[in-house]
Each structure stands twice: as C-alpha cells, then as structure tokens.
C-alpha cells in the first residue's frame, strides 16, 4: 500500500558554502533565516518565505560520516532510535549525510500522518530506507521521521509526523526570535509556496520514475497540455530543442485530504515535473545538469508568486540574475498581442525577462471577451544559483493556467544559449 502524503514540509539542500547561500537566500531572494542547528560537525539553517521552507545543510569536507549513511538495502531492527534534545549523534537531523561532490538539492520532506505505518507499508513493497523511524524530541514536543531513498539519483524523501510538536520548526533546532518580524517586513516579494519541483532525468526513464511515485506515494499523472499523449508526455522535438516533460501531483489522491481541517480551503499543491532530454536535437539544460550534477536529480524549483512583476523587480534590485529572452520576444506580433490581450505591458515584462504563456481554450470557437477570460501564466528563470549548473529557481505567477509554460521553452532556450555564448562556456551548445 502506498504512503499518503499530506504536504511538503521543507526542501533540503546540501552545499559546501552555507554562508554564501544563506546570504543569497536572505538578501537576494528575501527568505528569512528562522531556525538553526549547529554541532561541532554540522550546520543546518532553515529559511522561510510563507509556506516555502528551505533547509540548508553545510557539507563539511573534513569529517567523514561513519555513523549515519547506510546502504539502501540494509535491514533495520524494528525498534526506534531515540534522540533527545539537541545532543543527537546524527550529523544531519531529518536528513542523511550527502557525500555529494557538488552543491545539490536532494531531499523533499513530506509530512505524513503515521511514519511507522508508512515505513512498514513502503518496506513491504520493496522501498529502500536510509533512516528507520526515528524519534526526536525537545521541550516543544515529539517528532518522528524516516528517510526513504527515491528512484531518482540522489533524491530522497524524509517522511515526518510533527502533529505532536508545538514548536515553530523541528526539535533540535534553535528558533530565532526575529522570525515573524522579519517575515512580515518584506512584502514586495509575495512568494507563497513551492509551485513545482522539476527533476532532470536520463533518457527513457520517465515511465519508471512515474511508476515509482505512483506505487509508493499514490501520485497521479497531471496532464500539462490537453493534447499531451498519455505515454509520451509533452514532447518538444524540433528546431534543436528535444525535451519531454511529464508531470505528476500528489495532493488530489491523498487520503488525508478528506480529513484535514483545511479541506475546504484547499492547500496549494506542488507538482513534480520530470524533464527528459531527447536525442537528435542539440544539448540542453537537462544534459548539462546530468553532466555537472553527476546523477539525475532536482534541476529547478518553481516558486509561486502572486505578483511576479514586483517580486522580480525586488529580487533583481537585490542582485538576482534572471535569464532574458531575445528582445524580439516582446516585439514579435503574435507575442506582443498575446501579452497585451492578457492585460500586461510588454516593456514591463521585458525589463526582467518575464515570459508569458497563454493556454489555448479547448474550444477555440469560443470567443474570449475580456482579459479576465484568458488563462495564462508568467514565469522567469534565474541563472544557476550554485557555482555549478546544478540548480536554479523559477518564479511563476498563474492566472488560470496550470501548465509549465510550454510555449516559452523556445524563448528560454534562446536566452540560455545567448548566456552560454556570452560566457564562452559552451559556445557550441544550445541549452533548454
Ligand atoms: O517543467 C518545468 O518546470 C518547466 O518550467 C519547463 C522546463 C523544464 C526543464 C527545463 O530545462 C526548462 C524548462
Ligand atoms: Fe519550471
């Protein structure tokens, strides 16, 4: 039986220089550092922007971790490993030690109702666990967690039950007092939650990844486009761009959805997108990721904002670098009209490289009457935020459109290509 997930609790990153990323998250991306855990062997820093929480784990070159990481097929005694307070022995609480040579985003932590039951059910269907159910407590209460290894490269999932915990983050972390003050201070960047997480996967692996998430966590296919083929996914395979996108969602299948108190006011969900590069076209961003990251994994995360113009403006003033499509994107007759029909100003979007993609109505004979009838999304991509090209962020504002900006992929491709050429990094390559 699958383990049903109720929501994303946080996403964790493993980096060699936490200081630098911390500075960027706070000063450029306007996240708030709200909880920390420091031991002589590790440093973990938690950042929040509304419901979007990143946990940054600092990778220490000097200490080889002997007590924690276990091969996926190890069998555990059926008893709990109990850690109390801040003096736990584990190097990274709520995660495993990543001996990863490059900076990586590697753990999407889900809240579940019953960790023990999820562990048993998932083990029963052959799932590999890296950490057995483990209890952590402090004066705020008790949390149980377990870490499962996914089928995608170095990605793992911490399953956590914090229903018996009253503190504002997790036991073992010191919560900083400025939390709520800082959080309220910056209202220009209206990021509310994680919109989607995109995996870069090798060729022909999409089906396998989908099956894994379906069987283990009850994910369901989410059709990106009305014309999308069930088996093929959304395919772009022309003009040097070869990309297969397939999306999944977990929320709607969740048993917990029926009983949770916020069921009427449906919590925003986060979709998972699998991006696979296709042969015969030029090299693309997925190939670059696989090469630089060394394995499949999380390539980018879309942050939902209700006002992309203000958010992108505030972030670029603070030093975030965004990709811009060629200037002609905004002046091409079709696009310019599309932008104006949606009620936006092409010049304003051009200032920050914001792309707009309209969903075509299912019945094209239906005439749109006002710009309120048009379903579209706006998105903008940051340049890689790690020193290697192993992760970037995206801002996305949705106005009725539920896809991922399929119509923008060509524009994104051209802008990445221009960037690569300018940087003389891979002047012969084209990247999507
Ligand atoms: O699927 C998404 O999240 C997108 O925004 C589309 C996409 C996927 C992979 C890329 O390298 C570039 C764009
Ligand atoms: Fe995206």
UniProtKB/TrEMBL annotation:
This is 4-hydroxyphenylpyruvate dioxygenase. One of its GO terms (molecular function) is 4-hydroxyphenylpyruvate dioxygenase activity. Fe cation binds at residues 196, 300, 394. Keywords: Iron, Metal-binding, Repeat. Binds 1 Fe cation per subunit. One of its GO terms (biological process) is aromatic amino acid metabolic process. Belongs to the 4HPPD family. It comes from the Eukaryota. Signal peptide: none annotated. Catalyzes the conversion of 4-hydroxyphenylpyruvic acid to homogentisic acid, one of the steps in tyrosine catabolism. Its cofactor is Fe cation. It catalyses: 3-(4-hydroxyphenyl)pyruvate + O2 = homogentisate + CO2. The keyword Metal-binding applies. The keyword Repeat applies. Residues 7-162, 193-352 form the VOC domain.
